[in-house]
Amino acid sequence: MPKSLLTNIVFSLVLFCTMNHLSFAQTQESISQGGFIRLVAALDEPEFYCFDLMGWGKSLQIDDPLQTHTCKSTGVATDQMFYFEGDRLKIAGYDRCVQIAGSSQTTLAGSAVLARPCADNVLQSLSINASGKIQLNNTEFCLSAGADSTAASGPSHVWRTLHVTQCDTADNKLSTWQLGL
């Protein structure tokens, strides 16, 4: 590998880690085991909200819509580990990708966010843009936490819905995400 290419790769990795407040070790772990996708604004939850599969452990509801939920500690957060691979947002350990609910390869504002088998599907084509919005590629739709929250089953845990909204009208407090805690 040419030295200049290696230098560019290392610089890009350092820049990514710095922008996302991650250490190199966290980045390596995120690539192989997934990592948190956290709402930047704390809202009513000082432990912040993260992408989350409904349920946990034996009560996991993999086919239910995704939600945002109190970010859990890394040792018990297997239902909160996600990672980007190309234009797919994969769910670590579950052989699933994030998919927007829709019909005929289109979606609407308010649609649910689902965990589905990874496929060549435009409703699974996602990216995080420079402003921290997770956007359905080639559309004006972004992922947003719901406006309301309620208690969850864990100690001091709360949750909100996760749905699709128009990027240009989305409340930044509900739709700006970061990779990692």
Please, could you describe this protein's structure?
With about 180 residues, the protein is α+β, with helices and mostly antiparallel strands. The protein has two domains: about 1-35; about 35-180, Trefoil (Acidic Fibroblast Growth Factor, subunit A), CATH 2.80.10.50. It has three helices and 13 strands. The chain has helices at about 5-20, 25-35, 170-175, and strands at about 35-40, 50, 65-70, 80-85, 90, 95-100, 115, 125-130, 135, 140-145, 150, 160-165, 175-180. The strands form four sheets. Strands 2, 3, 10, 11 and 12 form a five-stranded antiparallel β-sheet that branches. A four-stranded antiparallel β-sheet has the order 4-5-6-7, covered by helices on one side. Strands 1-13 form a two-stranded antiparallel ribbon. The longest helix has 17 residues, at about 5-20.
List strands and helices in order, with pairings.
Layout: H1 3-19, H2 24-33, E1 37-39, E2 49-52, E3 67-70, E4 82-85, E5 88-91, E6 96-100, E7 113-116, E8 126-128, E9 134-136, E10 141-145, E11 150-151, E12 158-166, H3 172-175, E13 177-179
Antiparallel strand pairs: 1-13, 2-3, 3-12, 4-5, 5-6, 6-7, 8-9, 10-12, 11-12
List how many beta strands DSSP finds. 13
Supply the number of helical segments: 3
Shape estimate:
globular
- CATH-scheme architecture of the largest domain: Trefoil
Order of helices and strands: HHEEEEEEEEEEEEHE
Alpha-carbon Rg, integer: 16 Å
Distance between the termini: 33 Å
The fold-level CATH name of the largest domain is: Trefoil (Acidic Fibroblast Growth Factor, subunit A)
Reading off the top of the CATH hierarchy, the class of the largest domain is best stated as Mainly Beta
